[in-house]
Amino acid sequence: MGYIVGMIERYTRERMARVWTDENKYRKWLDIEVLICEAYTKLDLIPEEDMKNIREKANFDVARVLEIEERTRHDVVAFIENVAEYVGPSSKYIHMGVTSSDILDTSFSCLLNEAADILIEDIHALMEVLKEKAYACKDMPAIGRTHGIHAEPVTFGLKITHFYDEMKRNLERMKAAKERIRYGKISGAVGTYAHVPPSVEEHVCENMGLKVCPISSQIIPRDYYAEFFTTLALTGSTIERMSMEVRNLQRTEVGEAEEFFRKGQTGSSAMPHKRNPIASENLCGMARLLHGFAVTAMENIPLWHERDISHSSAERVIAPDATIALDYMLERVKNLFKNLVVYPEKMQKNLDITRGLYHSEAILIALIRKGLTRQEAYKVTQGVAMRCYEGGLDFVTELKKDAELAKHLSAKEIEETCTNEHYFRHIDTIFKRVYE
Description:
Layout: H1 2-11, H2 14-19, H3 22-42, H4 48-57, H5 62-72, H6 75-87, H7 100-136, E1 141-146, E2 149-155, H8 156-180, E3 183-184, H9 198-208, E4 211-212, H10 223-250, E5 257-258, H11 278-299, H12 310-338, E6 341-342, H13 344-351, H14 360-369, H15 374-391, H16 395-401, H17 403-406, H18 411-417, H19 421-424, H20 427-435
Parallel strand pairs: 3-4
Antiparallel strand pairs: 1-2, 5-6
């Protein structure tokens, strides 16, 4: 873990880490507590002089809060006690009629929204890199593979375009998930507003940039947050898909692309020749963590009655870890594809490995157009294809020599059918759909 943590520290921008500092968290708590007091003041429940005192003096010291928490064993109580040390007698109005989760959940939504903004920027930056790489490789022929077996030609730019389009959906999901978690609650111990009127909640949420949760118990329902963490996991799965492709393309026997290998970099401690896809492999491993965080978030949904605290301990871990991990992953996969080394000559060499066998569907269709049934056309084409497959023979040459096939297609028709142009004639249409 030390190696991965070190890499995260190098790649992750400091602003995501700052979201989850005690300083930022307590600042949100203080803002919420002061806003609650403001709302009470409007209701004439707190004297103006006391409100002025609270507004001017309310503050906290992170070290002091943690020191008090050692005694209280309760973070919010420790925080309120520390704020009271700054405010003095007027502090009796702070946290009046509310419960800890009013502060915790409302601030949690704020923190997640801050993290979401960073992740949305990350996705935009990655998409720009993917688009640039896709256009650079738009017309670069490569063999497409299904089940790991040669299928029909694609272009390398088309491969990248798949990733761009999927990441575009992740961007839409992230924006929707951000909106889903933009809820606050100040509804009291079991969500009935018994000691705090709804107008207080409305004042707090409006000023914190949140929407009012329509109904809450002691907490905001956890399905809101589960949707957010599931979105992080889905985005991680896209990164894993992208990384898996690089890993497969970098395999020695494929060799169509590879991660940039710096001068002086070491691939293996034992074998000096090795150039391993370490970034891609790391990213695949990190995606597994995000999947686990999503499961944890979903397991946080069912709680005892109006609330227990089994969710909160898990959220203290998964919230910073998941958002920091994805920030790292998006930054690293962006650099991976920005610096990805591609080998078009090896792509062409791999295209030629089967000596034209990938034209089998084109021949099948040509025979059907000549009047054969699909079953008849398939049988004729497969017979020639298997002979070539097993004997390493040239497909076009064997097609011309096949007596049964010659009844339906001339040598000229076979040659015209077995060209690559038709595989790529709609690439521009696909690009237009995705990028415009």
